[in-house]
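Fresh eyes needed here. Kindly weigh in on this sequence plus structure tokens:
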Amino acid sequence: MFLGKIGNLRRWVVRMIRSDGTHAAIFLIPSLVGVTIFFFLPFGIGFYYSLVDTPIDGKFVGIRNYVDLLGNNSFRRAIWNTFLFTVLCVPINMLLSLLLASLLNGRVFGQRWFRIAFLSPLVIPVASIVLIWQIFFDLNGILNHWLNAWGMASKDWMEGGSALYIAIMIYVWKNVGYNMLLFLAGLQNIPIDHYEAARIDGAGRWRQWRSITLVYLTPTTFFVFIMSIINSFKVFRETYMLAGPYPHPSLYMLQHFMNNMFQQLDYQKMTSAAFMMATVIVMLVMILFMVERRFSRWL
């Protein structure tokens, strides 16, 4: 009887070793270790710093750092600017990407070169991009030279309300090619038979777009929407290199605030702001996925 139990145990172990789940777990272990060490562990340490008064031998203060942060004028300005930047740049970027993808989905002369041209901002180093924009928008730059030639006065474009719109333009210029490629892939995966059947039934272009294109593009649209929002929070490099750590108030983003807190060794405000931003992004993405599922069922 004992030997029978040993035999059953051995067969169970062999079955587990040969199962697909075990093989998948073995391959996932390196990734899980990497994510734990380089993501979850620093995130947990950052959350701990946001709950103490000093990083070394700190005393637990609960949510006091978060309350102080919400009362900080610079933080509130950074939140508003980041929100305004996201609300403005994401719809512009998506609409322009969809329009370009629709145009390139047809028979266009030089289609391949247009795709390469729109994707080129993704592979050009950020420093080179910023240098070009600095030369264009500087007080003694190209744009002011053109204005002077037309008899108009020079303007410091980065020291006024126009700074935010310049940042939006750079964001759109850099990301429109990537989103266009995603929309183009979504459009090319729509079966042509559906359009032919709709035309035979007498459906016009608008009805075809609403009942076929929009339905098939829904998953792609939500994915592009989520990626655009996430990318809008990562525009810090361009704005930092363009206007420095303390830009015009209209361009002061959350990333500027956290970077300046890091340079001032104020880890409590920095980690509190980072944790709040991460929480908002995660909640926003979860809500968008729920909306996407409901919207797909409705269509």
Notes: The mean pLDDT is 83.
